[in-house]
Amino acid sequence: MRLQEQVRQQAVDGKSAAKYLQLASTEQKNRTLAAMAQQIVRQSDQILSANHTDVQAARDNGMGEAKIDRLLLTAGRIQEMADGLLALRDMSDPIGEITERFVRPNGLLLEKRRVPFGLVAMIYESRPNVTVDAAGICLKTGNSVLLRGGKEALHSNTALVSALQAGLSECGFPTNCIQIVTSTQREAIDEIIRMQGLVDLVIPRGGASLIQRIVQGSLVPVVETGIGNCHVYVDCAADLQMASQIIENGKLQRPSVCNATETVLIHQDVSESWILELVTTLQQKGVEVRGCDRIRQIVTTVGEATEEDWNTEYNDLILAIKVVEDLQGALAHIDRYGTKHSETIVTEDAQAAEQFLLAVDAAAVYHNASTRFTDGSQFGFGAEIGISTQKMHARGPMGLKEMTTYKYIGRGSGQTRN
Amino acid sequence: MRLQEQVRQQAVDGKSAAKYLQLASTEQKNRTLAAMAQQIVRQSDQILSANHTDVQAARDNGMGEAKIDRLLLTAGRIQEMADGLLALRDMSDPIGEITERFVRPNGLLLEKRRVPFGLVAMIYESRPNVTVDAAGICLKTGNSVLLRGGKEALHSNTALVSALQAGLSECGFPTNCIQIVTSTQREAIDEIIRMQGLVDLVIPRGGASLIQRIVQGSLVPVVETGIGNCHVYVDCAADLQMASQIIENGKLQRPSVCNATETVLIHQDVSESWILELVTTLQQKGVEVRGCDRIRQIVTTVGEATEEDWNTEYNDLILAIKVVEDLQGALAHIDRYGTKHSETIVTEDAQAAEQFLLAVDAAAVYHNASTRFTDGSQFGFGAEIGISTQKMHARGPMGLKEMTTYKYIGRGSGQTRN
Fold first, then answer.
1. Chain B residue closest to A394 (CA)?
2. Cα(A68)–Cα(B348) distance, integer angstroms
3. Second label for B324, Cα 20 to 30 Å away, from A230, A288, B48, B373?
C-alpha cells in the first residue's frame, strides 16, 4: 500500500473507533486506563529492549546527551508513565458535562454538552513519555488518537503502543482508539495534516520549524504549542531580592523548557549594584549573560545582545538582559519579541502591575511569580497535552477540558420557526 | 503602494487600534456603538446613493434578484442596522469577565479572564448588513476588524464604514478599529490570511469554495462557517403531523439559508400514505422533490436523487428524500453526507431520540424541532457573527462570548517553582 493510503486507512479506522469511544461510559474508560497502565508495566522488558535499540542508534548517530536523556526509558520511568495513566483514571471525566442549559420562549430546551473532538493527531519529537500521556488524555476525553512521534523513538513508541493496545483489547475497546503512524518519512506528516474531515484536530509539539511547517500545510485545525520566549520585567518599584529569586528560578530551574525565562527587562532606575550582583551570581551559576550597552557598562564581562538574542528562545543556560526606560518600554519590547506564552512583572506598585497584567498579550501573565508556572500540573489540571500559544479554542496549558468541544442539543415538542 | 503593503499597513494599524480597544471600558464602547448607530442614520443619503451605484452595476452585470435583494439597502434597512448596534450596546460585555479563579497550594492566585482576540478579519459576500453587524460585534468585544466584503457591495460598504468611523472619532476611538479593505482583487484575501502574528482570527462567510480556499491558504486560525447540508430523520415512532410541520418549516420558511433542511430521511415502516401526502403538499408549495427508488415508487412524479443530491446544500426550493432501513441507516447517511451543522430526529421514542442526539456529530442536534433554530437570535445570543461548523474554539452560532479568548493572570508574592 502506498504511504498516503496507509495513513488514510489508519485515519478511517481511528475515526470509526472514535464513534465507539464517544459513547463509552466513564467507568469503561477508567477501567481501560488501568488496564493500559498494567500492560505497560507487564510489557516492560519488551519496551526497554525496544528503547535500548533506539538509544543505541541515537548514540551512534551522535545525538546529544540532553536529547538521549529524553529518549531513554528505565523501569522507573515506565512506572511513572503507568502512574500517570492511573492519575488520569482518578480525574473527573469532562465528557457529557452540560455546561449550559436554557429554555427559549417557544419552549425549546437547549443544552450545551461537552463532547470529544473525534480523531486527534499528535505530531511530536522523540519523547516516548508523550506517547503514553497523549494516549491516556485522548482516551479519557473520548478521542481516538493518531500518534506520530520522532523517528529516533520509533521502536520505543511501537512497543508502548502495542502494550496500550493490549489494555484496550482487554477491556473490549477497539485497538484503533490508539494508533501509531510508523512511517518515518516526512510525507506521513504531510498526509496527516491534509486529511480534512477525517482528522478533527492536529497538535504539534516540538521546535518552531516543525510547528510552522504544520501550520502552513494544514487543512485541519491546529493548536500551536509551546514556543516560549518569556520575559521577566523588573520594575523600578520591585522587591529586588524577590526579583533575583524569580529570575534565577526562571532561568536555572529547568532551562530546556518553554516556560523558562529567556530575557530580563530592567527599569532604568533600578540600582546598578543590584544588577551587578544579579549578573555575577548568574554567571557563577553557569549562565552566559548577553546584555544591552547599559548592562555591559555595569558588568564588563557581559557579551553583546543583538537583535537575534531578543528574538531567541535559548532553551539553554543563556540569558539576555536589557535596560528599558519604563513600563511602556518593557511592554513595547514584549509586544515585539514575545511569543505570547508567559510574561512576568516584579513590582510592589499595584498600579504598574495591573497595567502590565492587562496590556500584555500572552497565555499567562504573572505578577511577582516565576514564568515557570505555566504548566498543567502547576495549574492543577493534573494532565497536560501541551501549552497552547494561540488564541483560538484553548490558551495556555491544555488539560482534559481543553481536549473537548461541545454540541448543542435541542429538545423540542414540534417547534418550528416563525 | 503595492497591494500587499497596503493591506499589511492596514493590519498594522488595526493591531495598534486593538491595543487601545482592549483597554476601553464597557461604557466607552457602548457610547461608541450609539454614536455609530446615529452616524449611519445621519449619513443615510450618502449610503443609499452609494448602494444605488452598487445595485445598478450588479443589475447591469446580470446579478439574480435574490442576490440583489441581499445587496439592496433602504432607509428601513439602515434603521434596522442602527437598531442592531443599539441592541449590542444593551447587551452585557463579556470582556474582563473572570470565568475561573483558583488559588494553588503555594498561594499563587490564578484568574482566567476573557480578553479580545485582537485583530479579526471578516471575509464575506456582498451583504452590507454583515459590514455593520461584524463591526458592531467586534467593537463590543474589544476587537478591531478588517472587513473585506464582496466587490459588488464595495461602494455601500465604503459609505457604511465611513459613517461607522465617524462614530468612532466622535467618541475618541481610533478610526482604525474598523477598516475596510477596498481592493477587489483576490490577492487582497490571500494577503489577509497570510498575516500570521498580525491577524488573530479570520472568519470567512460565504459559499463552500470561498471557505475552502481560505482554509487551504490560511496561516492564521480560521473559523469555518455556515455550510449546512441539514437532515430531518422521520423515525418509525414519529408524530407524523409534527414531522410534516418540521419538514415544511425547514424547507420553506427560508430556503436560502444554511440551517434550511436539504434532505429528509424516512424510516421504512412509515406509512406510504403519509409520504404521498407530504410529497404532494411540498410539490404544491413549489418544492422540487428528488427521491430514492422507494420514494419514486410511492410518488411517480418525483425525480431521481443521485449521489450528488445527497451531497448538495441546495439553498433552494429543492428537497431530497430517502427511505432508510432504521435509525442506524439514518445515522450512517448523516455521517457520510452531513456537514456537521444541524440535524433533527422526529420521534416519540425517547430512547431513539437519545441515541440520535448522542451519536450525531454536529453543532446542533434536535429532537422534535426544526433545523432552522441554529441561529444566534433563536438561541438568545442577541447577535451573531456566523455559525461555526468546525469543532475548535466555537461551534454553532457565534455570539459575543465566542468572539473572545482568555488569558491566565497569576498574582503572586514571589513564588518560584521547586
1. B393
2. 61
3. B373
